[in-house]
Amino acid sequence: MPMNVETHLALGLDQPCPIEVNGRSNSEIIASLTAPGDAPYHPCPEAYSREQVPAGTVTTFSDWQETQIFAGTTRDMWAYVPPPGAGDSSPVIIFNDGAGYLGRKGHIRATIVLDNLLAAGQIEPTVAVFINPGTAADPDDTRIGPDQRSYEYDSVTPDFGHFLISEALPYIENELGITFTTDPTRRSVCGISSGGICAFNVAWHHPQSFARVLSHCGSYTNIRGGHNFPYLIRSTQRKDIRAYLQSGEQDASILLGDWPLANQSMAKALEYAGYDYHFEFGTGGHSLRHGGAVFADSLRWLSRS
Questions:
Q1: Quick check: 47 pLDDT over 90?
Q2: C-alpha–C-alpha distance, residues 104 and 292, integer Å
Q3: What φ, ψ does residue 85 adopt, rounded to 5°?
Q4: Residue 113, CB half-sphere, CA atoms under 13 Å: how many?
Q5: pLDDT band for position 300 (cuts 50, 70, 90)
Q6: Which residues have a Cβ under 8 Å from the Cβ of 297 and sit 6 or more positions away?
Q7: Cα atoms in the Cβ-side hemisphere of radius 13 Å centred on 123
Q8: C-beta atoms surrounding 210 within 10 Å
C-alpha cells in the first residue's frame, strides 16, 4: 500500500536532502569517481579504430532549443550514421550525457565500437543519437538551474521519453532524412548514473517505443524517487524490456543512497519478476571505466535474437 500524505510529511520525507549530517555528505561521491577498483578496466578491444573498417559520419546539432517539454532549455546533440548510410526503419540507440559517450578518447568510444561491430557482422547498422541534458537558453531564466540534468534524468515520470519520442528523434530524422524503426526491440537507451536510471525510466514508461536498456552505475536511489523501482518492478505486470545493468563494489555510497546495493536490488527485482536482464557487477567505482570494458559485449547481448 502506498504511504499516505500524512505519514510522508510526519517523517520529513518532503524535505530536501541535507548538505551534511552525521559527519557525512554527498560530496563523498568524489572518491568513487576514481576508485582503485577501476584500475583493471580499459576500453574494450572494439573501442580502437581498425584499418579497413569504414567509419560512420557524425553530425552536430549545437545549442538546440526546439523543445516544449523542457521549454527554455538549450542542449547539444550529435547523430552518428553508420557506413554506408541509413535507410528506412533504422535501429537507434540513444546516449544520455551524449558527449561523454561520443568522445573518441574516452572510456566508451561508442562510434568506434559501433563501426567495428557492424564490420564484424555482429550488429545491424544502427544510428546513434547523443544528447546532452539541457541548460538555460536565457542566462537570466531562474526557472532553470544547475540541477536541470537531475530534473530531466532522475524524475520518475514519462517526460523524458515524451521528449525523445515527440521532439528530439523527429528532429534528427527530419534533419538527416532518415526514418527510425518503430520496433521497440530495436530501439535502445543508454546512460550512466542519473542518465542510467533515465534510460530505464524511459523504457519503463514507454515500452512500446524503447525495449532495450543499458544502464551504467544507475542512480536507483532516493534522488527523485528512483529507489522505488525495485518495488515497482516486483509488483507490476512484467513489461517487454531487456536490461543490461552495470555497477561495482566501489560505486557511490552517499546520503542519497548506496549505488552498489541499489543496483543489486534492481537486479534481484528483475530476476524475481522474470525479466530478460544481465547484471555486470565488478570492483569499480562511479565511472564509465568498467562500462567501457564491457561495452561491446553489452551491445551484443542487447541485440541478440
A1: yes
A2: 12
A3: 150, -175
A4: 26
A5: very high
A6: 44
A7: 28
A8: 26
φ, ψ of residue 256 to 5 degrees: the values are: -75, -15
Alpha helices in the chain (DSSP H): 5-10, 29-33, 98-102, 110-119, 148-154, 159-163, 169-176, 194-205, 229-235, 259-272, 289-293, 295-303
Q: Which tens digit of pLDDT belongs to each residue from 142-170?
A: 777 777 999 999 999 999 999 999 999 99
Determine the pLDDT at residue 259. Answer: 98
Q: How high is the pLDDT of residue 130?
A: 98
Please tell me whether residue 70 adopts helix, strand or coil conformation. coil
SS3 181: coil
| Single pTM value for the model | 0.95
3-state DSSP assignment of residue 106: coil
Domain at 49-303, CATH from 3.40.50.1820, 3.40.50.1950, 3.30.428.10, 2.40.280.10: 3.40.50.1820
